[in-house]
Design goal:
Elements lengths: L4 E5 L2 E11 L3 H12 L7 E4 L8 E9 L5 E3 L2 E8 L5 H17 L9 E4 L4 E6 L2
Antiparallel strand pairs: 1-6, 2-4, 2-5, 3-4, 3-7, 6-8, 7-8
């Protein structure tokens, strides 16, 4: 069973690069952007501004925390859960599904796009809440 947690996050200043990607371009786009942005003041992350799957392309924003960054993720309540750092597309979506179920069960709704945070030992899915 996947454990879902909530927490309140402060504003996060960051810098980023953006790409529009199809599913077959996703891994290369993530790796390339993370390499381009490194180092940061914390783990890199990706903000998905829409679904990336076999049927769609979407805007992908890859960022790193940076106290002097030109972008800000606003503070607020989030739900999060983690998966293996080696999780493939299908496995990581089990985590997304667990968070979506949690949100429905607790009468919440989404506030802004989801993001994946790439820690050394896990991928954390962070879902902003209302």
């Amino acid at each position: 069973m996947i454990e879902v947690y909530t927490r309140t996050e402060p504003d996060l200043r960051y810098r980023a690069v953006e790409r529009v990607v199809a599913i077959e371009e996703l891994d290369a786009a993530l790796t390339g952007a993370i390499d381009e942005l490194a180092p940061g003041d914390g783990p890199p992350f990706a903000i998905f501004h829409g679904p990336v799957n076999e049927a769609t392309i979407s805007r992908l924003e890859v960022g790193v925390p940076d106290v002097e960054g030109d972008r800000v993720l606003p503070s607020g309540l989030v739900a999060s859960a983690a998966g293996s750092p080696d999780a493939g597309y299908d496995a990581i979506h089990v985590v997304y599904d667990a968070i979506a179920d949690f949100i429905r069960e607790h009468g919440r709704s989404q506030r802004g796009p989801t993001r994946e945070v790439y820690h050394e030992d896990r991928i954390e899915i962070v879902w902003p809440l209302r």
